[in-house]
Amino acid sequence: MADAELVPHARNRVDASSVLGVNEEMLWPQAVKDRVKTGTDREIVQTYPYRSACPSTTWGELISGAAEEVFFAGYTNYFLWLEQPNFAATLVEKMKAGVRVRFLLGDPDAEVTRSRERVENVALSVSTRIRITLENVQKIGSHERLEVRCSAPDDAAGHIALSVFRFDRDALVTPHLARLVGHDSPLIHLRKAMDGCMFDRFADHAEELWSAAVPLAETHSS
Is the dihedral of CA 32, 38, 40, 43 positive or negative? Predict the structure, then answer.
């Protein structure tokens, strides 16, 4: 006698449903129910084994779709200027529409930065990538909705280990693995669904770094 609780693999369920002309849910309702995200899992939109596996169009859609704020809290944020067409012009348009734009960068002269450069050992160093972002941001010019800060020395290690990019109620999060550069580390796309869960935990982390960070003008004058 066949086991009534035995559930075929997903591919076989699809094939059987197609042959019988019925929905999969009619044959294996529990299997379909188990696929539906509940609780805190609802905040996980997508995961990628590498940041570079997340389509640049996803980044573009999140940036263009933000109505209140975009917050780039990566340590260098360098890749954005390479992967997003007309990135500066897009930011200017967002600010004109009332969107707050923030960049939280690492200090290019910090010891944590120099240490990471030795670990990565790549031609385009961490400090160089930060300075390229700073140069591009400065080309945008001053704007009341544009803010740039460098993370405080005591927070540098926590900043360089985790990048958080926020677009209203969406966030892209990259925990940096060992000796890997950012594009080789994993990425999680989160969307806020409730208070105090995954989205808020990472957003609060970025806000804590921001609250202690040094404004760009003060960094240059020191």
Answer: positive
